C-alpha cells in the first residue's frame, strides 16, 4: 500500500478553524522545510504563490513544529476536543 493510499484511509473530524496558524513573518526557507517535512503534504503554495496549510488532513505528529520551530507559527495546538484525526488501533 502506498503512503497516499494509507493516508486516504484515515478518518477525520474537521474543526471549523485551523489549529495551526502560520506566522506572518515565515520566510521562504522555513516554508520549504515545512513542505518537505509534513508527512501528509499539507503545506503548499496556492495558485497565487501564497503559503497555505490544509489543516484538515493533519496527522497531529508535530514534525512541523519540531523542524521549523515555534517561531514559524502564530498558533500551534492540537485540534479542539472531538476534532482532528480519529486514531484506530489494532
Ligand atoms: S502536525 Fe504533522 S501532519 Fe500536522 S501539519 Fe504538522 S507536520 Fe503536517
UniProtKB/TrEMBL annotation:
Gene3D superfamilies: 3.30.70.20
Entry superkingdom: Bacteria
Name this protein carries in UniProt: Ferredoxin-like protein
Organism lineage: Bacteria, Pseudomonadati, Pseudomonadota, Gammaproteobacteria, Enterobacterales
Species for this entry: Mixta theicola
UniProt keyword annotation of Iron-sulfur present: yes
Gene Ontology terms for molecular function: iron ion binding; iron-sulfur cluster binding
Similarity comment text for this entry: Belongs to the bacterial-type ferredoxin family. FixX subfamily.
Role summary: Could be a 3Fe-4S cluster-containing protein.
Keywords carried by this UniProt record: Electron transport, Iron, Iron-sulfur, Metal-binding, Transport
